[in-house]
Amino acid sequence: MARAMEKSGWTVVDVLGRHDAQDRAADGVDLLLIATPDRAVADTASVVAPVEETVVAHLSGVLGLEALAPHGRRASLHPLVSLPGDSAGAGPLFAGSWFAVSGDPLARRLVEDLGGRPVVVSPEDRAAYHAAAVIASNHLVALLGQAERIAESVGVPLEAFLELAAGSVDNVRRLGAAGALTGPAARGDEDTIRAHLEALEPAERDSYAAVAELARRLAGRNYR
What we know:
Structural class: alpha/beta
Shape: elongated
Distance between the termini: 48 Å
CATH architecture of the largest domain: 3-Layer(aba) Sandwich
CATH topology of the largest domain: Rossmann fold
Helix content: 40-55%
Strand content: 5-15%
């Protein structure tokens, strides 16, 4: 985030870590951005002495502005971008990306300077919004991890399935999720689903069955 801000014309005064003194972090800056894990946002904000002119913001997708007490000017901006730990070129990744914003207008200005697209998410909707983000990113990766394990067991490389996955995402973009759905759950081929479950290792069956039920629901099919 610091690199992206600098590339967009912002001046980053300092980056403080967990072992640095943080009580005066809001002094002399327009924006203090808290980029800790969710569980540490409130504690971090409470350590910093409030400065009337400074906006204090966090990057959490699930937390509201109450986590930033006792600061007067508060904001949040959550990038809908997957950034693994080795994202050395993170700056350009924010261009065109969606950000959930709330609070002080400076958050929207930062998103626009980064080339992002801001969308306002109300406090009561943030947990559901963040759940959707986790499903779209983390759960998708976990499912591809399952595909990798099963593919390995039959001697097929993961690469063979990544094009399939990418095509499915493109189809959702064009047609919506319901229009893009294919496969046995969409067709009502329950014998095929049972064959899959029998072929899988026991540890893989519950997750397959749960996602098959989601596919049935998307297809408008009821199954018991």
